[in-house]
Write a structure and sequence with these properties.
Length: 340
């Protein structure tokens, strides 16, 4: 790969002049710029973005920070987020790099250190736990940040989320209209903000339709298919009266469908199942899964645009964005007949 030194040697100009010409400084003549840029193209020179940021004393690089990035064939949410951020930043002439973190990694390096080392102009964050140190560090940081699905604000921080609680309430109301009265709920990890929001939505919705909140009907699935499968297998054996199960994610709903199949419990004839997210696989399950559809691509594009506003207009408004979800009715839910 060609370097500034190679261009300098080929053109006869100093490395400083080459660098200033490539960065379009006014003190370099147009003739010199044309010669240097032409040589750079012939040599297929590709600038080092971090080094360029240091020279220009500004940055056009955005970090997309996700927590515990895993290879997950069934969940397309992170990929949709990546595409949304990439497409938006490319159109706005910004670069972005992917940063994967975890609770363990956050003990070894501060949020400010990560941003400083990579010369980041701002960061989009998805998947941090409520207890993660980076959440508070980001809130107090001088680096502009936008959080996805974590409604926390700060001086240089805003967020994009969806109507989590309202979506769960709508799902409960739908099941209630189908005459379901014994409705269980599978919750995600306890230290995820969306888990708190969705669980509160479930409890408030039960109260609103006149149903009691039974703590035994709340199962911990930790956003994990295998954990949910095991927990629901035991639950269904001990609670045959339950006719509907609402899950805080589609991945956990897959575990419920599998557990029901193994127990020879028919969905939706004996138990209705609803998920949350609308991952691609839900269109192909048997039966197809009724789910609360999020819009991760749209959330990501809004997060990217909001972050650029924070960077380019630091004194402007930092109003959060709320994206509306949609309840998609498929084959995994049906009405039941109430016996007197």
């Amino acid at each position: 790969m060609a370097t500034l030194k190679d261009i300098s040697k080929a053109t006869g100009f100093s490395i400083t002049t080459v660098s200033r010409a490539l960065n379009n400084y006014d003190d370099v003549s147009e003739e010199t710029k044309q010669k240097i840029n032409s040589t750079a193209q012939k040599l297929k020179y590709s600038p080092n973005v971090v080094a360029q940021n240091l020279v220009m004393k500004t940055s056009k690089t955005i970090g997309l920070m996700v927590s515990s990035l895993k290879r997950e064939n069934k969940n397309n949410l992170v990929f949709e987020t990546l595409c949304g951020v990439y497409d938006t930043l490319e159109a706005l002439d910004y670069e972005f790099i992917l940063l994967s973190t975890s609770s363990a990694k956050q003990k070894n390096q501060t949020f400010e250190q990560i941003c400083s080392q990579r010369q980041l102009a701002g960061v989009i964050i998805q998947g941090l736990k409520i207890s993660d140190p980076y959440l508070e560090e980001a809130r107090n940081s001088s680096i502009p940040c936008v959080l996805i699905d974590i409604p926390v604000s700060g001086e240089k921080m805003s967020f994009v989320t969806s109507n989590q609680k309202e979506s769960i309430k709508n799902a409960i109301k739908y099941l209630h209209r189908l005459s379901h009265r014994q409705i269980a709920y599978v919750n995600g990890t306890k230290d995820a903000h969306v888990s708190t929001e969705r669980k509160q939505g479930y409890e408030e919705a039960l109260t609103a339709v006149g149903l009691d909140i039974n703590p035994d009907y709340i199962i911990q699935g930790d956003f994990d298919e295998d954990i949910t499968r095991k927990a629901i297998t035991s639950f269904l054996i001990n609670h045959p009266e339950v006719t509907a199960i609402l899950c805080a994610s589609d991945i956990m709903a897959l575990g419920v469908l599998d557990a029901a199949k193994n127990l020879d419990i028919k969905v939706p004839e004996q138990v209705s199942v609803i998920g949350f997210d609308n991952i691609l696989l839900t269109e192909y399950t048997t039966p197809t899964l009724t789910t609360i559809a999020q819009a991760p691509y749209e959330m990501a594009t809004e997060a990217a645009k909001l972050l650029i506003d924070l960077i380019e207009e630091p004194d402007g408004e930092k109003m959060p964005k709320i994206i509306q979800n949609e309840l998609l009715i498929r084959k995994s839910t049906s009405s039941i007949t109430i016996t007197k």
